[in-house]
């Protein structure tokens, strides 16, 4: 998986600003790591299943996740960020 650029939809942006500051900082660090090495073990990159098929997830920490959709050109669209419950959202 190659990461060219990362884009954020409006849901992601709204969710991000509502996160605690320390989680925002961790999310930024995870994004930097994702850009450099999307397969870094701490990100726990994986495809989602069921109603979220076609989407992927990376971990910020044990509780928080980023859900994204890879584009064919290597761009990533970050869709959602939050607690594990975002999988149900």
List the helices and strands and how they pair.
Elements lengths: L5 E3 L1 H9 L2 H16 L9 E2 L8 E4 L4 E7 L5 E8 L6
Features:
alpha+beta; 89 residues
CATH class (first level) name: Alpha Beta
Estimated structural class: alpha+beta
Oligomer: single chain
Main sheet summary: 5 strands, mixed
Average pLDDT metric: 93
Spatial sequence of strands, sheet with the most strands: 1-5-4-3-2
End-to-end distance: 25 Å
From the 3D coordinates, which CATH architecture would you assign?
2-Layer Sandwich
Unreliably modeled segments: none
SSE order: EHHEEEE
Percentage of helical residues? 25-40%
Number of helices: 2
Named CATH topology: YaeB-like fold
- What amount of the residues lies in strands? 25-35%
Number of structural domains: 1
What's the Cα radius of gyration? 12 Å
Per the principal axes of the C-alpha atoms, what is the gross shape? globular
What's the β-strand tally? 5
CATH superfamily (homologous) name: RelE-like
What does it look like?
With 89 residues, this protein is α+β, with helices and mostly antiparallel strands. It has a single domain (6-87), classed as RelE-like (YaeB-like fold). Helices cover 28% and strands 27% of the residues. It has two helices and five strands; from the N terminus they run E-H-H-E-E-E-E. It has helices at 10-18, 21-36, and strands at residues 6-8, 46-47, 56-59, 64-70, 76-83. It has a five-stranded mixed β-sheet. Strand 4 and strand 5 (76-83) form a beta hairpin. The N and C termini lie far apart (25 Å).
């Amino acid at each position: 998986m190659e990461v060219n650029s990362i884009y954020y939809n409006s849901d992601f942006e709204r969710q991000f600003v509502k996160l605690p500051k320390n989680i925002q900082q961790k999310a930024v660090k995870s994004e930097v790591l994702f850009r450099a090495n999307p397969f870094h073990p701490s990100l726990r990159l994986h495809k989602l299943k069921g109603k979220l098929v076609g989407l992927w997830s990376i971990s910020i920490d044990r509780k928080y996740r980023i859900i994204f959709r890879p584009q064919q050109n290597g761009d990533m669209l970050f869709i959602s960020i939050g607690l594990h419950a975002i999988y149900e959202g």
